[in-house]
Amino acid sequence: xxxxxxxxxxxxxxxxxxxxxxxxxxxxxxxxxxxxxxxxxxxxxxxxxxxxxxxxxxxxxxxxxxxxxxxxxxxxxxxxxxxxxxxxxxxxxxxxxxxxxxxxxxxxxxxxxxxxxxxxxxxxxxx
Length: 127
Known about the structure:
By secondary structure, the chain is of the alpha+beta class. The protein has helices at 23-41, 44-49, 120-123, and strands at residues 4-9, 50-61, 70-81, 84-93, 96-109. The mean pLDDT is 97. This is Acyl-CoA thioester hydrolase.
């Protein structure tokens, strides 16, 4: 399984009225890293043929992050079933797990706008 990661420094724009990272910011980070991971592995042809849509999110908030914290966001694809894929995103401060997001995505064929079984050529890119 290939793990993709990014580093983020918490800024004032990430904070809510309690002066910790807003829950919606964690979700945006999860969506951003998912897209970045996808784009880092695929070629232009795949990008022209397919896109992903979220089917569901399961989020577990463990700890908080604050202004100036150095955050590491990691993601990997857990598996495939037909047109569906589970992606895990884990957000850390140092070794401490702050948030874990499990998202079920569905692959869409751009031409037909319908669900498409995840082809082997895509699956192997994320193993």
